[in-house]
Amino acid sequence: MMYLSHLMIDVGSNPDRPRPGRLWLRNIYHVHQRLSMAFLTPTQDGEDPRFLFRIDNSVEDDGPRGIILVQSDLAPDWDYAFHNARILLAAEPQSRQYNPTFRAGEDLRFRIRVNLSKKSREHRKQESERTDVYGRPKSQGKRVALTWEKDRGPEVAVQEWFTSKAKRCGFSLCDFRMLHLGWVVGYRSKAKTQREESSDKNSGRQMRFRSALLEGTLAVTDAPVFAQAVASGIGSAKAFGFGLLSIAPIRI
To answer: Of 74, 99, 124, which one is at a domain's C-terminal end?
Structure first.
């Protein structure tokens, strides 16, 4: 059993006079920190609760509303998470239980924001020679932003990249559209002494993630593997708003 939450954020209608919600959304690190406050209870095995989220517009009309979708293993406590920041919200958070089931051959609509990254060639080569204390190959390596040749264009490269992810996640692509391509930025706060030496209001270690918002239709090829992908997310940087695969039936 999972939970799916919708948070409506007050971003205002005038970008030149932004609401606090618009400023908050500009730093993905602060967004992650605030959302994490809704999941302070550890799981039965003692680990931190797992959740995925995506800053999104309305799926139906692709409008300008600021919406955050959150998928979690535990029921969220949004009252506590926003107890001192209600000004960020445009409406009361909505949550419901989420327990999807899938079957092989099923066609579904999807939307996902992915972190377009891959392991560098140098680190992939090094990993083949690196092992952990148990002698197992290490799977972690330095990640770099996805690039493409100018004559191919980004949409072809992104579709090929996502197709390779799909094969490992129990589905195939039927229809594909890239709605947005850009960067997601965050700033980790510096220590107090470091902040005092800098006048930059965004001072801190910058994090930049190559981002693409994808939409289309898919066909489930392996139901258990696909269910695990929906629960766990797809790709890297899941803590910073990537990997949440939203699915819906196709209406005829």
So the answer is: 99
Which residue has tokens 């409406």? 91
> pLDDT by residue (tens digit) across 108-163?
999 999 999 988 765 444 444 555 443 435 555 578 889 888 888 899 999 999 99
- Number of independent structural domains in the chain: 2
Residue 154 is part of which domain span? 102-252
Q: What is the pLDDT of residues 77-102, one digit of tens each?
A: 999 999 999 999 999 999 999 999 99
Residue 225: how many CB atoms within 10 A of its CB? 14
Report phi then psi at 210, rounded to 5: -70, 125
CATH code of 87's domain: 3.30.70.1200
Give the CA angle between residues 131, 137, 142 to the nearest 5°: 90
Give the chain as a 3 state SS string.
CEEEEEEEECCCCCCCCCCHHHHHHCCHHHHHHHHHCCCCCCCCCCCCCCEEEEEECCCCCCCCCEEEEEEECCCCCHHHHCCCCHHHECCCCEEEEECCCCCCCCEEEEEEEEECEEECHHHHHHHCCCECCCCCECCCCCEEECCCCCCCCHHHHHHHHHHHHHHHCCEEEEEEEEEEEEEEEEEECCCHHHHHCCCCCCCCEEEEEEEEEEEEEEEECCHHHHHHHHHHCCCCCHHHCCCCCEEEECCC
